[in-house]
Design a protein that fits this description.
CATH topology: Hypothetical Protein Ta0175, Chain: A, domain 2
Radius of gyration: 13 Å
Helix content: 10-25%
Number of strands: 4
Order of helices and strands: HEEHEE
Strand order of the largest sheet: 1-2-4-3
CATH architecture: Alpha-Beta Complex
Length: about 70
Amino acid sequence: MLKTELGTTPRTDETPDLIRIEADVPDDLSATAHTRLLATLTNAAVRFGHDLTGDTKKSVLWVEVDRRNEP
């Protein structure tokens, strides 16, 4: 879903307790794609947020899935 909406390839970091996914947000992300992303993430059992990284203040969306709550 992130790749489809953002048009970028997400990066994944997995540990026994957590899966963290990060994806660069394009400067020209449409309002429609932004709304769909927020709606999907808000209804999912995940933590998510947004960071501005580095000197260029590159926009990065992150999602975390807590594996400790899995059955």
